[in-house]
Amino acid sequence: MRQKLVAGNWKMNGSKALLADLLPSLVQEKGLSCQFLVCPPFPYLPLVAEQLASSELLLGAQDCAATAEGAYTGEVSAAMLADLGVSFVLLGHSERRSYQQEQNQLILEKTFRALEQGLRPLLCVGESLEQREAGQTKEVILQQLAAIVPELNGQQLEQLVIAYEPVWAIGTGLTATPEQAQEVHQQIRTYLRQVAPHAAEQMSLLYGGSVKADNAASLFAMPDIDGGLIGGASLDASQFLAIARAAS
Ligand code: PGA
What we know:
By secondary structure, this protein is of the alpha/beta class. Helices cover about 40% and strands about 15% of the residues. The protein has 12 helices and 8 strands. Helix 3 links the parallel strand 3 (about 60) and strand 4 (about 90). Bound molecules: 2-phosphoglycolic acid (PGA).
C-alpha cells in the first residue's frame, strides 16, 4: 500500500515566533489519513520536536551530511537527526543541487547515511525549464533516479520517498498541471517497476512546486501522485492544513 504523504519544506525560513504561530494548529490536527511532516531548518528541530511529542505531525530535516561523524565543520550528521527524533530527510533538493553544487554521487552517500540511521530519505528530482523545453524531462529525471535507486536493496527502497519537483515550478507560482505532473510520475513509476519491481508499488511519489490549497486536490487526484512537498504554502497553517486534508 502506497502511503499518502504531505511534507512542508520551510527552507531557510522560520523563527521562534513562526513556530509559535504555526505549530499549535498543526499539532492539534487529528485523524488525517496521510502522513504529514514539517522540515524546519536545523536550529529549530529540537524546539519543534518538543511540541510534536503527542501529535501525529512528524519531523523531517532538509539535509544531512554525507559522512557519519568527525572533523566536518558545519555539517549535521544523520545520527544527530535521528537522536533528535527526526524521521525523514530531504535529499537532492534542486536548491542544493544548484547552490551547493550537489552531485548524484554525494546525494547517494547522504542517502546511505540517512538509511543507516533509520531515517527515510525523501529524494528530490526535477528538470529545469531549459531541459523541459528541449524535451529532456524524462531523460533528466531517469538519470537522477538511476544514480540512486539501483544502488539500494529492497529493504532500503521501501524507506525511500521520491519527490518530483520541476525546477521551473518551485517558488514561481507556476504549478505543473495535474496532467504534466502525472505524466512524469507515471514515467517514474514505470522506471521503478523495471528496476525495483517489489518496491515500486509501495513507494510514495510526491509532487512539489507551487502546490497551494486551491490546486492540491486536483494534483493529488492523479493516479501516481501520492502527496506533495510543499514550500511556501507550508509556512501558513491554514494553507498547509488544507493541503494535508486534500491528500487525506
Ligand atoms: P514551493 O517549493 O512550494 O514554494 O514551490 C517547493 C519545494 O521546493 O519543495
